[in-house]
Queue: 3 jobs
Job 1
Amino acid sequence: MSRRRLLVRSAAVLSVLFGGLGTDVAHATTSTALYVDDAAAGCSDTGPGSQAEPFCQIQPAADSAGPGDTVHVARNTTRYAPVTIGSAGTADAPVTFVSAPGDNPAATATVRVLAGTSTPAMTFSGARYVDVSGFSLSSSGPSTLVFSLSQHISYDKGSVSTAQAADGTGGTIAVDGSSSGIALTRLQIAPESGGPAFASAAGAQDITLADDTTPLGGGISATGTTGIHLAGDTIVTTCGNGISLTDGTSGSVENTVVRPDTTASCSDTGTPAEITVDAASAPQVTADYNAVNPLSTGTDYDWAGTAYGTSQAFLTGTGQGAHDLDQTDVTLSTQNTPLIDSADADAPGELATDLHGAQRVDDPLVADTGTGAGDYDRGATEVQDPLSLGIAGRSSADVYVGVPVTFTAGFVNPWSDTLDGYRYTFGFGDGTTATSTTRSVTHTYTQPTTSTEIYATVTVYRPDGTTMGTEVSLYLAVRPLPALTGSLNCRSASFQIAPSLPDTAGCAFTAAGFSGYPITSDLISFGDGSKAVSATGSKGVVRHTYAAAGTYTVTQRLTDSDGRTATDTTLTTVGPSYVATGPSRVLDTRKGTGAAKRQVGPGGVVRLKVLGVGGVPASGVTAVTLNVTDTGATASSYVTVYPDGTRRPTASDLDFTAGRTNPNLVTVRVGAGGYVDLYNAHGHVDLIADVQGYFTTRAGSGSSSSDNRMSNLAPVTPTRVLDTRYGTGAAKGKVASGSTTTVTLPKEGRGSGTVGAVLDVTVTGGTGSGVVTVYCGSRPSTSNLNYRAGQTVSNLVVTKVCTGGKIRLYNSGGHVHLIADLQGLYTNSVVDGTSPLGSPFVPADPTRFLDTRNGTGAPAGRLGANRTLTVKVAGTHGVPADATAVLVNLTGVAPTTATHLTAYGAGTLPNVYDDNLSAGETRPVLAVIPLDAKGSLHIHNANGSLDIVADLEGYIG
């Protein structure tokens, strides 16, 4: 065996060395121990270099060291200055530099030397017979470790790197042409500058690189070098040039893995080969047992000027590489790769241990295909026996007083090592232990844990009595026997049923108890008289489709084998899903659309067909949303819209005076035969109705190809999104006749799950009469709001929402200010992280719950200026206690001056309007009004005094 390999193998101790500028200290005597510790309080570069008074830097120690001396350098967190080593040992008494304990506690700590300039971190100049081990070098120059005029130097265990800012012209490790006998082993070489990892000049001799790795590329380059041997290296390349031997270089390349940096981008042509040996060197170089894996655009070998794309082609053309691998998975982090147990153990320069000092081991899962010992792996790392401790397991996740629990030692053992003779000591965390020759022990706890949890441990002893280690279980709590418990939740967003399944509830249940008393029955009933469902498992989700919209009580009843019972209840609200349509005109008595071509007289009723017309399906529809408009009235009157075939309610939907045109949005249940009725109280009037959408109970009926049109309503805090008086949402100033204003909704209205918006739209200060149409896409011929010159008027609008949360408002008349307040969003089943989750809407027959004229719902009396009326709604009139919002037809009656009403739920008064009224006017408007925590809504009057009337049309669960 060569002296070079003997030096490498004898340097297995973790050690580090550094040398620097000369000092005037006495030369160390033969076999003297010198010490370097820059963290020691009494260190001195002019001192004796003793353990009591060490040198501060490596240079004076290097200058003082002679044959047989050992320099001990402390592994500190600081970095030592660059060093030049010119020490001269002998073959039998080399100068040795080793690392010693310092203030860096890390197990992998090394002595660190930093050159902040272009100076190398370590230079061997005229040095002979020097062994260095266990340190890391870095430099801002082109080379970090330099050998000049030096012979018989071994450098083992550590790292060598150049800074990214270095010029990259030299090798990170550079050997000049006058140096020989250089052994570089078990090193991580990182040329961050982009230059070569290693470079030897013409004339260099007898160089070994074994079990080294170049994780950042750079490659190995030897020019005119005699006897360079690469064995068991892992070389990462950037677009080729992993190994380059030129100008008459001789030597060998064996057991080496050359693989590309897969993040690099290389050209399709002209990429250098991974291994290049020129014509002058090829007769003097042997290559075998390597693994070459270039990028798909690269070349394996360039040998004597000929490129070879595969190892087979290389073997055929040169007779070399008979055992080479190419285009393989060269990662050693997984089992069963072709690199395992396939190397040449007798390759020149190969080591008995790998990059990390691990011994060569045989992998029983892989056939031995190498030579020599047969269990050497290719590359710098040897796959080790993966036998290791796992996590101590237990037979039950829950641990109870008086119930036996079994603890088991866990192993990771893919090589199926025998565990015969192993011994196990279990600690149970309660002060007791048990020792066993088997991997499992059963223990019964007698007391529950109190303020803290405990954990069990298993200490594993090998057959020779040495400790393999201690594994720890997950923390556990010892509890008294648990009670039988169950829970129901029909409200969480994580399992709420999509709008595409209307009138359907999803309820999550849990069932828990003591495993020794298994649950024998878990029945869930849905409060509608249907048969209870038997649930299984400790948790899950059950679905149920109801015959009618509403709020229901869901009940869970549990029974276990001990006869214990438990009950839990919760509420669930289901309703139809909303589908936006056109809008489309389904009634116009001026033209005979949907009814006779004539005005509706006093007490007259228009029976309007709504199913199967205007984009509304012929079946499966429970309610429709209509924009109802009166025009040409001969007297003050009101209109009530209600299901055909039912008794007309006392509530009104549209109040108007003679000669005016007024719209109002109405949501009405569909009556017998698919009809709704419109009743006119006084005088004659023309009625117009535009269908905006419908509520369906039919699953998937929103579209022939998708359910995404089906939606539920998500009330939002009333928010002003447009006010041209102040430049909110659009340019400041009145909009012109024939103009279209585009509004972008707030963030929650821009998601892909938002399909519709509910807005209160107001016009004011118009210079002429006109209409406003709110839409998405192509502008329809219908309108949402009619106004006269100077009039302030509002109406609730339900509109589709275009991509990005955009809607458009078209003005047909004179110049006018536009105001829009967002009240809610219709959202589908798409979960986009932006659109709010909608809730089912339950339509109701119009029910008057507030009338200050006669004391209904509040004390009789007009509401004064800047006063707020609070009305409890939840828990009354069929609205459940946990409703979140209500749909209300809100009417202001005969104010003493122009005013506006604002309806809201929790919080302070928002800067929005629901109903705008002129002095003496009676005007209704539909509004989505959130409820506060007490189930109440609030109505605020801005000016003068007036009466308030409110009719319930439905609620949101």
Job 2
Amino acid sequence: MSNNDQQQAAAVEAEAAGRGGLSQTELDELVASSDTGGRSATGGVGVFLAMTALAWSLFQLWIASPVPFIVGWGVFNDTETRSIHLAFAIFLGIAAFPAARTKVQLGLGVAVPIILAYLFMVGAKDGVSTWWIPLVAIAVVATVVLGSPKDRIPVWEWILAVVGAASALYLFVYYREISGRVGAPNMQDTVVFVIGIMILLEATRRALGPALMIVASVFLIYNVLGPVMPDIIAHKGNSLSEIVNHQWITTEGVFGIALGVSTSFVFLFVLFGALLDKAGAGNYFIQVAFSLMGHMKGGPAKAAVVSSAMTGLISGSSIANVVTTGTFTIPLMKKVGFSSEKAGAVEVASSVNGQIMPPVMGAAAFLMVEYVGIPYFDVVKHAFLPAVISYIALVYIVHLEALKAGMVGLERPYTPKPIIQRLLVSAFIVACICALSFAVYYGMGWLRPAFPNSAGYIIFGVLTAVYAALLYIGSKEEPLKLDDPNAPVTRLPMPGPTVRSGLHFILPIVVLVWALMVDRLSPGLSAFWATTYMVFILVTQRPLMAIFRGESKFANDVVEGLKDLIDGLVVGARNMIGIGIATATAGIIVGVVSQTGVGSALADVVEVLSGGNILAILFLTAILSLILGMGLPTTANYIVVSALLAPVIVTLGQQNGLIVPLIAVHLFVFYFGIMADVTPPVGLASFAAAAVSGGDPIKTGVVAFFYSLRTAALPFLFIFNTELLLINVTMFQGIFVFIVATFAMLLFAAATQGWFLAKNRFYETIALLLIAFTLFRPGFWMDMVFPPYLEEAPAEIVQAAADTPIGQDLRLRVSGVGDLGDPIEFVALLPIGAGTTGEEKLEAAGIVTRMDGDKMIIDDVLYNSPASTAGLDWDQEVLRVLKPVPTPSKYWMFIPALLLLALVVLLQRGRNARGSRKTAAV
């Protein structure tokens, strides 16, 4: 989010103030400035940029498909595809994003190339020619100084874009030659690196603003000037050739995992969302949510939350989500009594949460697949519960706002049936969906073995028949139109016809979810099949719908469908420019971390700052994420913070006796990364919402931040209670956790909003927070009353193992030396296996101990044993032994919590009753 973006957003907001809405053109410009590129080139140049974006989308579809392997042509390895992907991103980043002309931006555009040129000359080894490096810097600076008009692309920017793309393509063109000299870059490699890194940083400044450019430059400075850094983070320093090798001609830096995930997974999901939106699904989701929830108290705001959740299923962009749904919902929220700031804040809070909503989460979720080393199915499983709880809590917050203001919903277009009848109909529909799901699941299980060679064609035929049937049903309803939100609302649309009009939009989402969750295909292949089906729908829905309505102009309808398809492919590629550049530039940071070992040094710094307290470490991580998020896009923020601090949290947590799953830490970082889109003073989603609502952007951001406190609380909770991430729980436990956690989050929302059944007194707010905490983490209190572990002397480890039931963990605090020879101390969970004696149980766990004077020493650890997996090694000293003891269920703590809740309910209902009597008396 660049300074220029923020200034534009503020200017647009100021222009809209008092008017309460923007034109679609102005909103499109706002989205373009942050997501797709703000340059409005027309004529042949505009067509050429569109064709380049189209070529990028087609290339990504090609490499994701099985076609290259079938025809034996056009097969690229990972490094080659990353090279081509980055070439497209840099070319379009320079061409589509005009450079900002503020003093700060100009200063950075000039200073960074000059500083880097000096650094590279300093870092060059003796005898290496460096006279040419300043010339590269001067050329880049010249393109910055000469200017960057918004309505055309000048010659110097064409040159910059082409040279930047060529430097990215270098790995593709010279792949074989480079693979033969890895570790020994030649002068040609060095020249390409210097040119490429400077142009990449300039593209970053244009597309993403100054923050990521500054952070990446600081890390490059640190890479060269390691010897002169403070002792705690000092390192030997790296020469220019070492940096070239690490950053550009291997996959450790720019072309690393982050860019690989952008190439393999993220592009296809972004493209899928763009095509689905182009087909009309975004409007359909908004209208369905509005028709179903508009009659409730604060109905339009609840519809905004639900429609943003549905749009978030297919979109990973906060600002696009705000503008897509906000143009319709924000004016309607204002009509039922929300202020401009609160209406904007509801839209911001719900839209930003779209990035945590499976199955299509923000781009950072796909990076977790590589960084954590688990399938995308598991990422979605772990992220599902917190996302749903967060959205339910936001609906409740909106409800509380409506109660506080005494709002009413919009008038229903029909008389509702009795509640019992509605519940029976809902139950019947759910039962039908479940029956259909089982039939499809087991039908698929029978079909594939029965017809191994033609199952794919049969499935496509069945899907197409269902698609045609749903289109026929939709054709009997009026086409959905996005009404003017500033016009008077006389009544809500009918839910039945509204839902039926676009049921076919659900099919590609079903294909995606099925491929991801049931068939367990890779994210890239799942997105490819869903996108392919979306292409089929885009081309056919217009002509088929027209035929069913008896209005067919077949040729024109097919042409219009093809135009929609091309537009969707172009928009999908342009939406990827920022992500492609962000992942490449963040790769610089990851490369420096791996090359210099700053991660271990940072662990020491964080441990000193936090005093080794895990909660303090988490707060430091959250603050760092929020600060970096003020300038970095979510994806880059996640890459940087997870690379720097995720291992630190896991390590220091282990040293504190808290075994934190790596996925929990990465989701923690991810959540606070998206919070940065909300947080004032520079949360761009808040600026976008204020531009739509005509409210103050800072006030909108502040209100949205308070609405989003539930999102900020969840990461702290699931670090300490991993059941919220559905880790090691059964299905029934998962349902129980969902119900309890949802109830607890609603109480937390009531506390933070200062309203439950009535306006909270301060002690009631404290009580609600205490109750919510107890429901979320009942073990916190139970462990104080009944400690779950009994400490034994290290010499009693054999007896402790004998007393520990099979399948439970024996906790050992041990000391030893780390991989780098540093002294370490941590807690290991030793799973106790089968055996009749303590010695046999320890042997089954893979550990042999001996006494050395008064010390208990680990004498040997079997390779690949439970003890080895737990981190134990020979010659470590056992400092403490904690054996598990029987304790009452932690859920007994729910009883005092619920009694306290009953007291709060009695107090507030009493106040309400007294208030009603006073009102009646008056």
Job 3
Amino acid sequence: MSVPGPVPGHEPGREPGRAPGRRSSTFTRLLRHGFTHPSEAEKLLDVPELAALRGDAVLLEALGATADPDLALRGLVRLVEAQPETERQTLTTTLLSAKPFRDRLLGVLGSSEALADHLARHHRDWETLVTYEAADLHPGVAEFEHGLAEATDEVALRVAYRRCLLAIAARDVCGTTDVAQTAAELADLATATLRAALAIARTAAPADAAQCRLAVIAMGKCGGHELNYVSDVDVIFVGEPVEGADEGKAIQAATRLASHLMRICSETTVEGTIWPVDANLRPEGRNGPLVRTLSSHLAYYQRWAKTWEFQALLKARAVAGDPDLGSQYIDAVSPLVWQAAERENFVADVQKMRRRVVDNIPAAQVERELKLGPGGLRDVEFAVQLLQLVHGRSDATLHSGTTLDALAALAAGGYVGRADAAQLDEAYRFLRAMEHRIQLYRLRRTHLVPEDEADLRRLGRSLGLRTDPVAELNKEWKRHASVVRRLHEKLFYRPLLDAVAQLAPGEIRLSPKAAGQRLEALGYADPAAALRHLEALASGVSRKAAIQRTLLPVLLGWFADSADPDAGLLGFRKVSDALGKTPWYLRLLRDEGAAAENLARVLSAGRLAPDLLLRAPEAVAILGDPEGLKPRTRDHLEQEVLAAVGRADGAEQAVAAARGVRRRELFRTTAADLIGSYGTEDNPREPDPGALVDRVGEAVTDLNAATIAGALRAAVRAEWGDTLPTRFAVIGMGRFGGHELGYGSDADVLFVHEPREGVDEQEAAKAANRVVAEMRRLLQLPTADPPLLIDADLRPEGKSGPLVRTLKSYEAYYRRWSLVWESQALLRAEPMAGDRDLGERFVELVDPLRYPVEGLGEDAIREIRRLKARMESERLPRGADPTLHAKLGRGGLSDVEWTVQLLQMRHGWAEPGLRTTRTREALAAAHAAGLMPTDEAQILDEAWVLATRVRNAVMLVRGRPGDTFPSDPRELAAVGRYLGYEAGHVGEMVDDYRRITRRARAVVEELFYGAA
């Protein structure tokens, strides 16, 4: 391009002879018309080739109306310069005299650098835009075939394709066609191109063409008649032999033709490429044959296909090749598409498909993703397609491959609310228009909104935003994305409420059958009961019902995202019934962003948390408080419990108050655990399962210790007032002492006392025993609150020995009779309640036993190994799978704990870090002391954490303790969700458990059973 040099002494933007600092009138006009580089534009307008156009006000106005006046002018100069001198005047005269042509040409040049390049290379293609016959306004496949008819090779096909694309773009940027019509034209042009490419391939291989019939089935956006400017064109190939031909050879011939067709469209030549042809939606994907017979396709779909493949077939359309074969294919697969909702795994597949897949988008790009990001095009398309799959089996009006047509049909049938459909239609059109204009600029396949200011300005202006293009574009984009994000889930659920509510005149109700189909597709096992719950919650004209109608569409989605949607909805109804007249309840769920989602997660994750909540529904307030899910400290809990005991009338009322606090805190702990394990929209899942285990163990231990302290105070007050005749302490043992209690764990304890000065030993012993008996009775009284079971079987002499001993009695027993297993059990001893000084003196007493100086002798080590081996053979329940028993199975809790405890007893005297009651702490200390390598420590830690989480999961899901995975499929799925596995991946969960514990067992064999 020739650009004139500057006039000597001439300041850009100032006419020669004009005073310095003053701009020329042309410069000012260019600024007014939207040029961002007016100095450069002035120079371009001065080139000799534009002499006929220079100073023409109409031209400047037309340039100013384009998306990017600077880009349009640069493209125009290149086009004029490319004309032979004999033809240049024809272009400039036409440009000045014909407004429609001027608008079309400059509109394209101001929107697409790539099409400007094409026009500069093919200087006569501008004539395509000069006249429009009536048929040219909305061309179809036939018109595009005519436009490509003379192309006999790859290069000519590309030129002809771009010429047709030029006309589509011109209609688009001038507003002659809307975004849906443009997408349809692009799909029709793709159809014509595939036909032309197949013709070229057949001409190149007449022998192959003579052997076979080949049909090309368009899929994806091409099949749906809604293609982008630059997109992969998804296809499936179907082949059959001609009469008398060998099938194997015919399919080979068809495969060669199909491969050549793909290369014709996809390969880069001197004229660039058209678009990639992608056949990966075929059966078996890229691993399957490129061409199959019709019967082979059907055999695959009937036996092996997954739900997403039927979802993809929803857009299948025969576009090229043998029309009869194409029609046979569509006729054969269509019924399979609409039967997909009846398949066994449809619900699980739908749940997986409904979860947005953004993991593969780089974090920096998520916010700029038009297609896959939150509130993007994919959200609308998936929602529409899944509703089509659910309801299309009984309503043929929904059988459209085009997103906007299908959305309109869903609204007309009452499957989607009319207002929601209208908002989604508007948002989808805007987002698709953005996508079109972004791609049109350089004809590159992208779904990312640009970051560059100039690109954003051009994009905004191309969409008619002229006052402040960048700010207006960002505002409109975010608004429409927000609409999609808000509505794409509610799209499923709002009509379910309309099905049971009073509707405005003219609104169409979802039929009970259709509502049941949808609930079933979303994972509800009892759709009829679910509808009854919805009716009870949302029908009527009260303010309460109105708020419920606002909340339920979102809650239903969260319930459906769980392993047991029915339980979630039933629990929500029960909580709502219990708190229905409480003014703060629905307000909390409506106004506190996290409360409603937290409640949905808690109610649908299993039985334990909802049972705890329903015993005192007001605890739901915990879920709306940002600090509500944090566990309370031991001191805080003990202070609250003791205060409640002090206010109570009598021991039973006092312990009922203490148990009420425990129930509330158990709910807080289970809720925090479930929400941390599942994650929410605003807070992702806790990535460290060990942190979750530690939080649960610490929290349950603290609240049980506080409850025992309360029961002790209540028992003492009832008979002795403020002071018991003997000092008394409760020593935590086992998981209690190790701060590793699960939801279903008993509290293992020892009771120790020491008579006060002047008190008879027998009197003191009687008092201590009466206190223990009363504590145990009070903590197990049948009430609405879960009981706290106290187990003292780890005491000297076990069940045969006295429940309570004095400190001196413990000392005498341990000095004379203590066995190695008792020393091992004392590794977990830690004071939990009662007299602190006595508790500390008990610890001083047992320290030499559990951390013997110079470690364990050979006999003691052999005895511990013998006891462990005996326990493995005798204590595992009959019929239990040893590879899946979390406590006693291979690589489970017992394996890891005995290994760590053996190291503590052997090396604790020399390594202070090993003197802890906590397993994971001791394991880390053993690693730090060099007693095991890093990989082995990690293997044992991972197995211990996983086994602990399995036990917690079973209790959360079933409401009762268990050491193995549940056999019920729904309960097993719920355990999987808690452990971080998506629906349909329970097999993977069990395999992972076996693999992790198998590796742990190998470490145990070496460290525990190996050489001393």
